[in-house]
Amino acid sequence: MRLGSNPVAAPSPAPVVSVMTPLRLLLLVTLPLFVLDQLTKWATLAFIPLHHEIPVIPGFFNLVHVTNTGSAFGLMKGWFNFHVIFGAIMAVVMFVLLFRKSTDKLTRFAAALILSGIFGNVTDRIRFGHVVDFFDFYIGQHHWPAFNIADSAIVIAVGLFLWASFREGKNKVA
Description:
Radius of gyration: 22 Å
Shape: globular
Order of helices and strands: HEEHHEEH
Number of strands: 4
Number of domains: 1
Strand order of the largest sheet: 1-2-3-4
């Protein structure tokens, strides 16, 4: 034994507890975004007549009040049962991803985001038979399809899922 060495093994470090547990993600990401989505849709219904627009940045951004019975970008219009059932199935898949121990932090965060979007849009479909959209970005006469907070959460989540999958693939190759 060397001089000055301690024969007692150093204590192992305490396990690191993730700050963003699945329950915290639901309470701090999913629930607030769902509430924000529903509040903004309520404000749209209360203050913007159907098919009207309020210019915010002329030539680029309006607040509008439009409805959508389809999915992203108005595809599959009128497929009410499909959208509700598909939303329910995807919510179950996202809950599994959120609570599975092997899921990485980025994927968990994306699952929490997508859950807020699913809950927001399925709530609209059940309450109104359609989704309320209000963000309208455009240049000249070229408008991007109108969307809402729930749609934004879903699109951001898909981007994060893609990023996580590319990161994971890169780690496996290296």
